[in-house]
From TrEMBL:
Keywords (A to Z) from UniProt: Carbohydrate metabolism, Cytoplasm, Hydrolase, Magnesium, Metal-binding, Zinc
Protein name as it appears in the record: D,D-heptose 1,7-bisphosphate phosphatase
Organism domain of life: Bacteria
Site location (Stabilizes the phosphoryl group): 63, 121
Subcellular location: Cytoplasm
Any one biological process term the GO annotation gives: carbohydrate metabolic process
């Protein structure tokens, strides 16, 4: 494994990032988005991501999309949905810096997607891929999502984890969370609240 990039003084130049789940965190939780008409950004998401952009924290989306593996929709629709996500964010002056997708499932209809992979959350493959490609410091990063699988994924790489109560979050917090060993570092009403907490924390570090 190669060493992290460093400045002339020997200090690592790896930076923290904010990893966002997609469904239930960025857009309304619909189960499976099997038509473009089912994609709707949650209120305040564009503003929240724009604040991260302006602060200089990379924003990466990491998402399980087993609906592709199960044959519920084609790859072309997944591409269309993500193009629409980027378009709607751009209208609010926001952007994501990367998009990482796990299309696998052990019971996939198509053989090419039928495997037990290392990238399906709560496994950490997507985060590790992003960190390697973009020189990110995972222990200094944040993982935000509405499911305990997001929290377990983030905790496994030493990241700070945030549960949002949008999507499945409120139900998971009430019915799943009390039995879990892994607990979020912060519980946020929505992505806007999560981003405010992240920025406050980063500013306190610098202070």
């Amino acid at each position: 494994m190669s060493a992290p990039p460093s400045s002339p003084g020997g200090v690592s130049t790896r930076q923290p990032a904010v990893f966002l789940d997609r469904d239930g965190t960025i857009n309304e939780q619909m189960g499976y988005i099997n038509h473009i008409s089912r994609f709707h950004l949650l209120p305040g998401v564009g503003q929240a991501i724009r604040r991260l952009n302006e602060y200089g924290l990379p924003v990466l989306v990491v998402t399980n999309q087993s609906g592709l593996a199960r044959g519920y929709f084609p790859e072309s629709l997944l591409d269309e949905v993500h193009a629409e996500m980027r378009r709607q964010l751009a209208l609010q002056g926001a952007h994501i810096d990367g998009l990482y997708i796990c299309p696998h499932h052990p019971e996939a209809k198509e053989e090419r997607f039928r495997l037990t992979c290392t990238c399906r959350k709560p496994r950490t493959g997507l985060l590790e891929q992003a960190a390697a490609e973009r020189h990110l410091d995972l222990p200094r990063s944040y993982v935000v999502g509405d499911r305990w699988s997001d929290l377990r994924c983030g905790a496994a790489v030493g990241a700070t984890t945030i549960l949002v109560l949008t999507g499945y979050g409120r139900g998971d917090a009430q019915y799943i969370g009390p039995t879990q060993t892994v607990q979020p570092d912060f519980v946020a009403e929505d992505l806007q609240t999560a981003v405010q907490w992240i920025l406050d924390r980063e500013n306190n570090k610098q202070g």
